[in-house]
Backbone:
């Protein structure tokens, strides 16, 4: 079989000059409806913008076809169905996208069975990359943001309360923060997990207020839930009671900030990407975004994840001259590095196939009259996913 | 509606669906995953039709049984390591049946709105449990790691869905056979009697309450099996199996096909799921709107669903052909 | 408490008119959107925006009632259930198409934000306002139904439509008006609640169970019932989330089942 393949490739190579355009099909699954459904477009736009800007870098005769599918929110059943169809019916070369962890988890077995590389451009629970050897992630993990957050917070605050949404990323963020915070000498006075759908934060906020922590660390899925949290935080007077709101950057996403109003001012977060970052690569990115999609539009961290993911895919296409072999592609992915991404230097950890990047401390301030996540300092550099690092050190622990 | 007065012998037209399924298996190998899904929903719709169409119980809580079956099958595989598919099915059927008997005994004393409310409340409770009991159900993340051993040691569930399709087809066939026997029996006659005129049934001395529980339980078992099949073919369970949107969609499918007749449960899901496969991806908003619109139209103008419409067309067709015959 | 305002409309239509209207949430959602748009984009003052929500939703319901609902007054429960579910689907799609999937931002006026100090504890101003508003609402509604001629006519028409018609009451118009009132109240509730319960396209589905629970628990055809039910539910829900967050909404459902089994007609129901 191998000789056959080599012979075929050789034959193809010979006629490649005269060959017709080769299409790389990418099955792009993200959310356009359902919970926090506005996030899908942020990912798709980033991918398309990159393709538009860098299309000429592709080998001659190669073009990319993006097959976009809506998984309708947190719907692992549907996501799996879509992935299966993309792989079996459309015969895609790559799978990409996915906002939500449950969806990514259900797609994983399909990637493995069909040997289709799956580039995760958002879903942030640490364990996902372990579910299939064909998964590589260019977005982030909650441990990467919440663990340094905990360590940093322990230097400033003595006590903290955690409030997270009750699903994979939430659990990760809670665990990571608590570990970082307690390691630094802080004390956790309370933890609560809020249901993912229909959370009415008022009752929970009241509890937090009564516990009187120095800081409240929140994690909820990026988007309008964050606005609801902000409102409840101020409505119940927690800010006046001296409790500081902190969390990973998901709670102050760039596109949702204008809706939060001034109540978000002063919130401190730790994250790998802010649209207000001043490095040149990001300025160019944001400028191109506004030019293409409108002056009032802004990219967010999902866009960053998708942008970088597309850059990585391009690298694989260029190196293989448009003929994607799944295993070779994974090799290229695993050794990918980019010093000039909008979020700073980024690379993939070959052992875990997860992204490695810097984490920055940001504060919500008013810049030119608009709210923005201003990056104050780099809290941690080249952070590998702490959870997996911990797993390596203590394999007996689950 | 045809029912117990019909001839219990199987008409030749009733073999058509099975022939069609066989044809699909050989001619459309790329669509078998969708096909398996359709078969599962036909089973689900059939279970609902049993109580909705034949016994007249309006419920929005049928996904409780479906979801319970799905989760039981998933949990004993992922958490207890039981991978034999038939054992999983049996466990799901048992659990769903148990829930059916228990809840049926309790809620079937009420009617109309109260009954509807109670069915929804039960489903909501199950949803809450599934949501909170993350160690068992995976919560909002869903339950992954469900493995199903190859059937009879030889047939593995593959990516293309071939085995899944045949598996579901066999399950559906058995269920269909059972339902048919039920409908065309004195039991079925009494079901229709209860639907049409409950008071008189009481007067005739029929044990209405007990029979209602019986049919409710049978329906619950079928729904539970359908749920388990979904878990087995997907090797995954998500919270949406217990959601109201699923129950709503099922209702639409059944109404579309025609309530109170076995084949309504066949036609409805086929039409709905195929249409959804083509249209929903391209135009999700229009799809949703279209479904609602069709539902409204069907309710106002064609309460018998597609089969109902066919019923109206066919007699005139028959009349014309017999007129032609007699004219010669 | 927002639940009450929305649910009382449902109790009115379902109890007084015997029509199972699952699409009630649609009117609440419509009101919410109108309110948010008026307040946000058109910059109207708060009370005016609320009024607009009430009126527009009421008008919308009249249109729907005349065109569609009236055909199904005598159809079975199944038909009504299916029809209203179909309406929900359509409304959800329309809302998504017009407004997108994000909830429109709602910025309350200054005098309603922050907190008031009552009995030694701080309460969010807005919620206190809601409770007071609902109380006023129930009083005026009760007054309307029990003491006015209109209320008497509605009760008569519901009890025995033919008889009422023979006495000269225009039942058709009466039903339309009552339906408009019920739906308008839903719209009002949606607007009032827009700050707390986000107005998004999936609104009717998400909160359907709650509306129905409040009505079923409180009892059809009664006004006091849903109020007390909503009050109890609201308190129980908040208390549960405060003391035992792990159980969540579980207790609410269990309580519903318990109460409905003990009293199938609800706590204060006059008819099933």
Residues:
């Amino acid at each position: 079989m191998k000789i056959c393949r080599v012979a075929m490739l050789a034959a193809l190579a010979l006629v490649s000059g005269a060959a017709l355009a080769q299409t790389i099909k990418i099955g792009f699954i993200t959310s356009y409806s359902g919970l926090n459904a506005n996030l899908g477009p942020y990912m798709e736009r980033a991918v398309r913008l990159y393709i538009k800007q860098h299309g000429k870098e592709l080998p001659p005769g190669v073009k990319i076809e993006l097959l976009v599918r809506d998984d309708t929110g947190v719907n692992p059943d549907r996501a799996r169905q879509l992935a299966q169809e993309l792989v079996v019916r459309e015969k895609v070369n790559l799978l990409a996208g996915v906002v939500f962890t449950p969806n990514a988890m259900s797609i994983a077995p399909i990637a493995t069975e069909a040997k289709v590389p799956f580039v995760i451009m958002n879903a942030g629970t640490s364990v996902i990359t372990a579910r299939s050897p064909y998964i590589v992630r260019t977005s982030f993990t909650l441990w990467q943001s919440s663990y340094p957050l905990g360590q940093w917070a322990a230097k400033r605050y003595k006590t903290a309360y955690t409030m997270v949404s009750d699903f994979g990323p939430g659990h990760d963020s809670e665990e990571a923060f608590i570990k970082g915070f307690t390691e630094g000498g802080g004390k956790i006075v309370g933890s609560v997990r809020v249901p993912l759908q229909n959370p009415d934060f008022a009752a929970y906020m009241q509890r937090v207020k009564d516990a009187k922590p120095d800081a409240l660390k929140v994690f909820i899925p990026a988007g309008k839930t964050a606005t609801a949290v902000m409102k409840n935080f101020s409505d119940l007077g927690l800010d006046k009671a001296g409790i500081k709101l902190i969390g990973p950057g998901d709670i102050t996403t760039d596109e949702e900030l204008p809706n939060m109003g001034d109540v978000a001012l002063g919130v401190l977060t730790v994250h790998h990407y802010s649209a207000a970052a001043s490095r040149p690569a990001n300025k160019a990115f944001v400028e191109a975004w506004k030019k293409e999609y409108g002056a009032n539009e802004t990219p967010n961290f999902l866009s960053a994840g998708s942008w970088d993911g597309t850059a990585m895919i391009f690298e694989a296409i260029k190196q293989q001259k448009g003929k994607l072999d799944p295993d070779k592609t994974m090799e290229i992915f695993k050794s990918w590095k980019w010093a000039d991404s909008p979020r700073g230097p980024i690379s993939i950890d070959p052992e875990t196939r997860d992204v490695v990047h810097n984490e920055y401390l940001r504060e919500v301030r008013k810049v030119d009259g608009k709210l923005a996540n201003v990056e104050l300092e780099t809290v941690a550099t080249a952070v590998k996913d702490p959870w997996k690092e911990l797993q390596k050190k203590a394999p007996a622990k689950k | 509606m045809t029912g117990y007065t019909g001839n219990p012998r199987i008409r030749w037209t009733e073999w058509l669906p099975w022939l069609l399924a066989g044809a699909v298996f050989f001619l459309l190998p790329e669509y078998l995953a969708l096909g398996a899904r359709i078969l599962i929903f036909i089973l689900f719709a059939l279970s609902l039709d049993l109580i909705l169409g034949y016994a007249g119980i309006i419920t929005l809580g049928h996904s409780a049984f479906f979801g319970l079956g799905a989760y039981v099958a998933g949990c004993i595989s992922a958490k207890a390591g039981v991978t034999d598919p038939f054992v999983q099915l049996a466990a799901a059927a048992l659990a769903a049946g148990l829930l059916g008997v228990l809840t049926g005994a309790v809620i079937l004393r009420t009617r109309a709105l109260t009954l509807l409310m109670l069915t929804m409340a039960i489903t909501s409770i199950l949803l809450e449990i599934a949501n909170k009991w993350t160690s068992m159900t995976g919560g909002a993340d869903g339950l992954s790691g469900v493995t199903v051993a190859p059937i009879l040691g030889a047939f593995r569930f593959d990516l293309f869905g071939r085995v899944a399709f045949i598996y579901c087809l066999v399950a559906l066939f058995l269920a269909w056979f059972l339902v048919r026997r039920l409908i065309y029996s004195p039991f079925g006659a009494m079901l229709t009697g209860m639907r049409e005129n409950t008071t008189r049934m009481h007067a005739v001395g029929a044990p209405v309450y007990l029979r209602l529980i019986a049919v409710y339980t049978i329906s619950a078992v079928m729904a539970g099996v359908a749920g388990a099949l979904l878990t087995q073919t997907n090797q995954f369970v998500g919270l949406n199996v217990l959601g109201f949107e699923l129950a709503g969609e099922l209702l639409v499918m059944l109404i579309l096909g025609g309530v109170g007749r076995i084949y309504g449960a066949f036609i409805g899901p086929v039409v709905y799921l195929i249409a959804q496969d083509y249209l929903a991806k391209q135009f999700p908003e229009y799809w949703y709107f279209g479904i609602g619109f069709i539902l409204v139209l069907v309710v106002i103008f064609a309460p018998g669903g597609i089969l109902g419409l066919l019923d109206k067309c066919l007699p005139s067709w028959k009349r014309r052909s017999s007129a032609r015959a007699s004219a010669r | 408490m927002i639940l009450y305002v929305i649910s009382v409309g449902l109790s009115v239509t379902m109890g007084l008119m015997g029509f199972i209207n699952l699409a009630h949430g649609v009117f609440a959602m419509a009101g919410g959107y109108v309110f948010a748009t008026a307040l946000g984009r058109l910059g109207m003052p708060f009370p005016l925006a609320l009024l607009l929500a009430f009126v527009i939703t009421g008008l919308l319901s009249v249109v729907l009632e005349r065109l569609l609902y009236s055909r199904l007054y005598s159809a079975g429960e199944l038909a009504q259930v299916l029809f209203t579910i179909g309406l929900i689907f359509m409304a959800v799609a329309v809302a998504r198409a017009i407004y997108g999937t994000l909830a429109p931002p709602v910025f309350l006026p200054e005098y309603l934000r922050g907190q008031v100090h009552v009995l030694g504890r701080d309460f969010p101003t807005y919620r206190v306002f809601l409770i007071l508003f609902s109380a006023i609402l129930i009083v005026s509604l009760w007054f309307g139904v029990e003491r006015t001629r209109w209320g008497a006519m509605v009760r008569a028409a519901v009890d025995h439509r033919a008889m009422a018609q023979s006495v000269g009451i225009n039942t058709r118009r009466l039903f339309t008006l009552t339906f408009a009132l019920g739906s308008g109240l839903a719209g009002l509730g949606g607007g009032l609640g827009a700050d707390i319960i986000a107005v998004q396209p999936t609104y009717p589905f998400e909160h359907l169970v709650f509306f129905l629970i409040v009505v079923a628990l409180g009892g059809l055809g009664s006004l006091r019932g849903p109020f007390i039910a909503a009050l109890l539910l609201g308190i129980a829900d908040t208390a549960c989330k405060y003391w035992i967050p792990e159980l969540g909404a579980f207790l609410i459902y269990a309580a519903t089942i318990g109460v409905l089994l003990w009293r199938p007609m609800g706590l204060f129901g006059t008819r099933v």
Notes: Chain C has one domain: 2-106+130-262.
